[in-house]
Amino acid sequence: MRRLALFLTFTSSVFAASSTETKDVSQAGIQTAFRILQKEYIRSSDLTFDVLNRAALSGLLQRLDFGAELVPRTSEAKSGARTGVQAELLTPQIGYLRPREFTQLETKELEQHLRDFVSKKVGYLILDLRSPAPPGDFDDAADMLSLFVPKGEVLFKMKQMGQTSSEVETNSREPVWTQQLLVLVDDETNNLGETMAAVLRRRKQALLIGAPTRGGAVRYETVPVDAEWSLRFARAEVLLEDDSSVFKKGLQPDFPISMLTSLKRQVYHSTDAADVKSSIIDKPRPRFNEAALVANTNPELDSYLKRSAGQALPEDERKPSDTVLQRAVDLITARTLFQSAKIDWKQKAPVSNEPPARRAIPVTK
After folding, report:
1. Residue among 51, 46, 57, 45 at smallest CA distance from 10
2. pLDDT 10s digits, 35-70
3. What residue ranges define each of the domains in the chain, with the CATH number in brackets?
4. In Å, how far are 54, 161, 237 from 216, measured between CA atoms?
5. How far is CA 275 from the centre of its chain?
6. How far apart are CA 111 and CA 122, in angstroms?
7. How far apart, in Å, are the Cα atoms of 22 and each of 12, 30, 56?
8. Is residue 198 classed exposed, middle or buried when 0-12, 13-18 and 19+ CB atoms within 10 A define those classes?
9. Of 53, 82, 180, 229, most Cβ neighbours within 10 A?
């Protein structure tokens, strides 16, 4: 009986915290409900300690959301997904970088691409942090941030469970990129990407574009619980320079743009084997022009004949489009145009040498 009482106390506290339907029920009421179900339920024999234990753990994990989760031990090893940094010049003035797993090797690769962009005098960088990567090591996040943050500045702080003081991460090197920066985020941005975005936005070094993040800027620890499963749970919380936290809050983009997660993953899959520019630029349909006239061809007639024969045309296949990246490029283009348009408000109108127009004289009767 003592074992049952202790168990009911534990499970009732879990369900009281995790279920929205029982939030107004007292602890004694929840324990009474458990006892009644175990005795009077039509299939009370199904409510074994094992079933109730699993239900309690399920409710607790649901309550903690991404703060804790059970993961297969096989997933702790490196996945077979493509790794590395995807880099490309979208225009001569716009560079694009997307780390896929936020590892130490990708940090070195990221630095190489940044130096290459600097040598080519690229003025804008789009840093895509939307990759659905597993939680990473915050040493890698600090190394990546050191490529952007000035030397000697605080990157972020780590507050361990049960401690009052925080570990301060400070940049000890000169940054590589000091130009304009746009950061793409969404609800799949992992803990490292979310921390990087929060730090850069907090320092007013970047604008965020995309969807709200989920608020998972924490350090995770993974502990095996049996032969097949491990428990991954938040062990330390990331704090910004002003001791603010984004855990459970997330980041609201400066320019919110919604995009389906499935569509974004299609874009990533298609651009892994091609260029990123293909996801933001539509290929125009071939038309009859001067070049076709010189070549003695008529692409419009060829398309008409194929269409009449029921054949598919290349332009019929619609490739997935990255609307978030498109809007980021549009924002940079618009900003560049406005900056290049210099208006001299003090300039006077040019003096004309033409004689002034004569006014019509009304005829009086």
Report:
1. 57
2. 777 777 777 677 777 777 777 777 776 776 666 777
3. 2-66 (no CATH), 85-259 (3.90.226.10), 262-312+319-338 (no CATH)
4. 25, 16, 9
5. 20
6. 14
7. 10, 8, 14
8. buried
9. 180
Q: How many CB atoms lie within 10 A of CB 341?
A: 7
- Report the alpha-carbon distance of residue 92 to residue 297 in Å, rounded: 33
pTM for the predicted model, two decimal places? 0.73
* C-alpha pair distances (Å), 161 with each of 7, 57, 102, 114: 26, 21, 24, 36
Determine the Cα–Cα distance for residues 332 and 237; give it in Å rounded to an integer. 34
* Phi, psi of 341, deg, nearest 5: -85, 95
Distances (CA, A) of 169 to 172, 192, 219, 258, 362: 9, 14, 14, 33, 85
- For residue 204, is it left (φ>0), alpha (ψ between -120 and 50) or beta? left
Q: What is the pLDDT of residues 103-155, one digit of tens each?
A: 999 999 999 999 999 999 999 999 999 998 888 889 999 999 999 999 999 99
Structure confidence at residue 8 (pLDDT): 44
Residue whose structure tokens are 């780590």: 158
Place of tokens 């699993």: 54
Q: For residue 120, list its beta bridge partners.
A: none
